[in-house]
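Form 7-S
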Amino acid sequence: MDEQKKVSFEQAEMNRRAFLKKTAAAGAAVGMMGLGMAQQQPTADQVVRGKNPKLVVLSSRPVVMESTLELLGTERITSKANLFVRNNIDLPGLNTTEPNVQPGWVVEIGGLISAPFRITVEELSRLPQTEVTSVLQCSGNGRANFNPRPSGNPWTYGGVGQVTWRGVLLKTLLEAKEVKLNENARFITMNASTQGGAQPYEKSFPISVLDYNSAMLALGMNGEPLPAVHGGPVRLVAAGTFGTANVKWLAKLEFTASESSGNEQVPRYRVPVLPGWNTPILPTQPGSRYPYALNNSRSNWGANINSFILSPLAGSSVKGRLVEVRGVAWNDGLAPVESVEVSVNGGTSWRKAIIEGNEGKFGWYRWVSPQLLAPGEYEVMARATDTLGRTQPLNGNVWWNERGYEWNGVMRVKFKVT
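Output:
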């Protein structure tokens, strides 16, 4: 009997060891699989054909990727390979920088106009075309700078670029169709295509927020047909607004008396305000929640004033005592950018930079600030101000909001002079 117990015990011990060995092997396999998956994180060109692999992929579906300050500093006009992507919906087969060739694509134009109509992309291409160069920016760009970190994709500074659009102005389109705008029209409400089972996407912005004459149905970007991933064959472009108002894959546009109440309009893409949509953003306690509604917040419409330092880059070493600090500034285009000030001593003193030129009122103002610097470590800061007196806060966290929109705090870059 004791011998039988001994055999049973030994058999049980063997079974236990075999089980642990298998479990350990399985765990190792899962670990290696996880490591392999981490190593196989797709690059930007694998997610979107034609993109620069140096772009940072924040999400593969829907596609979200940001550029880098290094890439942005190499181009006057941001190429389609280097331009960020922020898609809220997925349309099958459109993750490419090639054109979206779909003959017969129709856009419905309706709402508060004298005669609703439909127009194909081919008809649009035969109407008078206009070009506008503007800064395109995700309203969450800079979100990673807020503290505590808000919800959403952790954008640093790469959710922006400057592109040249080509298309038909809305004003030109209505005139060509001999259609008049109703006096009660206050908003433009747009719908993206739902082909392939894509989720509905509806956005509005007030006509009074921007220069209405600049809003267009864009068919081209940077001298080429509009890339599929950037909204081809046709998207609404409202120069001076954040990207969320520039609806891609446009299928319907209506002139309405009020803004959309859809999910993409409220509670998404909004910031707290005092009563009245056009009042300044309302400071909220960092880390707090806010009950977003149409009457206590506004959508991300006009871009706020901002500036970036593109050279020197953070952590870089610069040889020589004459250092050229370079960057760009921009706003919503409603007033010229009047000055850019640069500090190399933590904000103790500021010197006006030289504004070298701009690409039109909606584009980047390029600036340079020559500095004579002895060898050592520095932190350079830059802030822009326009003719309306709008400027950047030294501490961007004063406008903290739980979704991390509209960051425009003064940029700080640490570098070394050798």
